[in-house]
């Protein structure tokens, strides 16, 4: 299941397995129900939720301008969208009777997998990058996972070795192009369900894109709702990749099912990926497009969000950066913000921060800063 | 309004102002409605919500054992319960026509106030402690606030000077004993409303307690619901203070409306307070009690939560530490966890973290760690 499709995959491209459902048996009022909140509300279109939840999902749509909303995924149990994936992936591990979970991650995914593993009573091994920030290392280790750094070239082979020798269930891709976890990616559909339940199908959804799993999940969710007659359209889905990498845009430009690129430097480390996957290409070519955004554009979008009271990781600002880079689509637009500002490398000293114990000293600084 | 009650306050004790409502005019079905989600759902029992929201509230109850739930307040816009307070306090600043907000805080409160100020288009000045961790300083500065460190003894006088000279609206107490913001504290009532909507009134609610504003808000919320006939009881409300300080427990022991203590060392910096407030004493003596928990007890509770997939600030584990320290009440119990683990001072290196690029090396470490 996690090796990709044995029939269609080649030495150059791995094709993922996809979950199908008996859509004809879906109960009416799928979008209206309150259910238990979180992912359980949508259980009838998800793989079996064997692993206990942490209240993931039901994140707010925060309006930041006329017809523009931020889907704030930092309001999840481990403060990123990855919790939707890991609830489903950990459920697969429980269902398969695995004794542990193995994951390769630069941050959010690893911490989230560790949390859901702990919650389900499973061991967890995290392979991370050698330049992972200390705060993110502590985050990934906080749930009792065994965290190891490995050079980029060694991470996929090591993950394969772990899976082969320990029987731990992998929730990261081990294939030549990205396939990911077939159950895990289904969790991202719930973002589409929640948006549709809140405001219907918007004109467009812009989102940060690394391997493109979020893109595929959101696309599949909206496609299901449209097929079921519950919404009147599938939004335009815009994949926003860092200009320093961008395997999806490269694949589309070259007409390939998935491409490989040589990443340049970028601070958007969560989405700077050397290899793409077929799922992303399928989604972007079916109902959307792919674009590149520079670190400078992401920083401007990140600053725009600060002024709206939202502190996001640089990568998480890629969706809004993409929207800002072009003409606004007609109608409501949602930009998915995937994660909190705590995940970035420290930005260094900010304005202020000086110690003062008299009003005269403080007053002088406030005048200098133009506050008073 | 923010100076405490001018008639009853004395040189030793400041009594806060409290908001009252026309409860007879409340629409039926208060607990049933879905509304807009977040705090807006409860607007009919809150001060006017002039300031725009960020999707605060509607946090999950995560079951961690038979009849024990964690109310995970880290799933808020700035990842703590303070967002409920600051939506209401920033609304008061907007309603008063203030050009800015001034706040004194060791972390969560300052960052949250900064976020809601930015969202409302207001300036913000944050006074913080001189030993605030760098990551928390960055967090408080992330929303464009002007952040200054000041020695503990200087913070209240400096806040008073800022308010007097700049006209900024204070959302922290400036009085001799803690009074806090009369509108802000109303925001905490929504925690009681959400719990009651999810599971009814539980047998008990345990919560971290510093100045006791959370305690008062939750008490008032449950008291309102009971008075309105919407629940069958007011839960026992248990205030869990760090043993290193504990002004509420001291006040109750001494029969005072509010007390002052000399804090000892504690890593639960968010709730280690030298001065209490009358609101907390009122709540604890009306429908609950107060207890002290040691750093060691909080660490054990924090570790228990890690194993459940919840990474919380040490202070946030005080509620569960309190529950663990005594006999379990009969019936459902909720422990409020106020904030995420990102807010703690770095704990230093964790197990693992070594760099490996071969299976043999990794295998050896996994065997040593007892994983395989």
From TrEMBL, chains A, B:
InterPro entries recorded: Ser/Thr_Dehydratase, TrpB-like_PALP, TrpB-like_PALP_sf
Gene3D superfamilies attached to this UniProt entry: 3.40.50.1100
Biological processes annotated in GO: isoleucine biosynthetic process; L-serine catabolic process; L-threonine catabolic process
MF terms in GO: L-serine ammonia-lyase activity; threonine deaminase activity
Domain Tryptophan synthase beta chain-like PALP: start-end pairs: 54-338
Listed cofactors: pyridoxal 5'-phosphate
This protein's UniProt keywords: Lyase, Pyridoxal phosphate
Pfam families documented for this protein: PALP
PANTHER family with a match to the protein in the record: L-THREONINE DEHYDRATASE CATABOLIC TDCB (PTHR48078:SF6), THREONINE DEHYDRATASE, MITOCHONDRIAL-RELATED (PTHR48078)
Protein name: Pyridoxal-phosphate dependent enzyme
Organism: Glycomyces buryatensis
């Amino acid at each position: 299941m996690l090796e990709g499709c044995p029939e269609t995959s080649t030495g150059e491209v791995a094709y993922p397995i996809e979950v199908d459902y008996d859509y004809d048996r879906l109960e009416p009022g799928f979008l209206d129900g309150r259910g238990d909140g979180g992912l359980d509300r949508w259980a009838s279109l998800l793989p079996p939720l064997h692993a206990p939840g942490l209240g993931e999902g039901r994140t707010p749509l925060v309006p930041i301008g006329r017809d523009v909303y931020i889907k704030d995924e930092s309001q999840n149990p481990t403060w990123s969208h990855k919790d939707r994936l890991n609830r489903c992936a950990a459920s697969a591990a429980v269902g398969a009777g695995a004794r542990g979970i193995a994951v390769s991650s630069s941050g959010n995914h690893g911490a989230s997998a560790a949390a859901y593993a702990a919650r389900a009573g499973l061991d967890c091994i995290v392979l991370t990058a050698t330049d992972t920030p200390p705060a993110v290392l502590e985050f990934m280790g906080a749930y009792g996972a065994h965290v190891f750094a490995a050079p980029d070239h060694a991470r996929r082979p090591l993950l394969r070795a772990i899976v082969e020798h320990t029987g731990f269930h992998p929730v990261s891709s081990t294939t030549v192009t990205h396939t990911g976890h077939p159950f895990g990616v289904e969790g991202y559909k719930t973002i589409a369900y929640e948006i549709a339940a809140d405001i219907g199908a918007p004109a467009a959804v812009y989102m940060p894109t690394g391997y493109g799993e979020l893109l595929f999940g959101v696309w599949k969710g909206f496609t299901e709702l449209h097929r079921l007659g519950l919404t009147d359209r599938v939004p335009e889905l815009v994949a926003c990749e860092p200009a320093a990498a961008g395997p999806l845009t490269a694949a589309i430009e070259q007409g390939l099912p998935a491409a490989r690129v040589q990443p340049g430097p970028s601070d958007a480390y969560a989405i700077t990926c050397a290899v793409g996957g077929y799922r992303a290409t399928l989604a972007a070519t079916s109902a959307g497009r792919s674009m590149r955004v520079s670190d400078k554009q992401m920083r401007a979008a990140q600053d725009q969000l600060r002024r709206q009271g939202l502190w996001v990781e640089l990568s998480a600002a890629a969706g809004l950066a993409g929207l800002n880079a072009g003409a606004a689509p007609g109608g409501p637009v949602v930009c998915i913000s995937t994660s909190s500002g705590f995940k970035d490398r420290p930005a260094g000293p900010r304005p202020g921060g000086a110690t003062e114990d008299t009003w005269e000293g403080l007053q002088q600084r406030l005048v200098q800063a133009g506050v008073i």
